Amino acid sequence: MGRVNCQMGIDEMMRDIATIREIGLVDAIGRLIEEARGHPDAERAAGEIADHEVWFKWATEHERTHGRDSLLDTQHPIYLEAEEMARSVRYVGIAGGGYPIAD
User: Fold this and answer.
1) Average pLDDT, stretch 15-30?
2) What is the pLDDT of residues 42-97, one digit of tens each?
3) Which residues contact 41 (CB under 8 A, 6 or more apart)?
4) For the range 65-71, what are the long-range contacts, defined as Cβ-Cβ under 8 Å and sequence gap of 24 or more?
């Protein structure tokens, strides 16, 4: 198991997992569930973690059938915000004389 981010509370982790589920980032959910399982307060959120695990198993099977990122909602407001930040970082890298970040 990887290093657990104990600075983030388990409730905050559960909210983040729920949001990332809405976006449809299946791989990220798998990593976050592993992190949540290792959190010192994981017992308190055992039911939510179990619900996320069930969804993750379903989503993994869905992606096997329909293709990777088939659940991805590229119109989700948080996804759009992250895309805009990535574009800004690429621009700063190019305009600032740094190395551009590949798409």
Assistant:
1) 95
2) 999 999 999 999 999 999 999 999 999 999 999 999 999 999 988 887 766 665 55
3) 9, 10
4) 69/24, 69/26, 71/24, 71/26
